[in-house]
Amino acid sequence: MAKAKTEPKTKATAVSPAEFIAGLEDGPRKADAEVLLEWMTKVTGLAPKMWGPSIIGFGRYASTYASGHSGEMCLTGFSPRKANLVVYVMPGYEEKAEMLARLGRHKTGKSCLYINKLSDIDMDVLAEIVSGGLAEMRRTHQTWDA
What we know:
This protein has 146 residues and is of the alpha+beta class.
């Protein structure tokens, strides 16, 4: 029996990122999300787009895994989660120790940078990390600006 093709859980939607942020509860998380939306648009030079219900992404790339599964995802982005802001840099953070040491208070996952609030970090260092991640993705994957 042929295996059913699975749909990716996170894909681009037609929801407006600005409307998504406007719908967040007033407070520091919403204020930081408003700043990040404008900041990431400027740093990446790309238009924001919602990916799934809560990720604001910039650009997109295609990948095929060893399993044969393929799909698309944003090149970089962020999500204003209740616990913290999450910045997604798709190549990950393994080779970014020097930059991360200068960033300020944060935690990392494979491709996730967890920040409690923007005032905890150096935005110039974050720009280096995001720009470097974009450049690496453009070198190693098929990418699009929309």
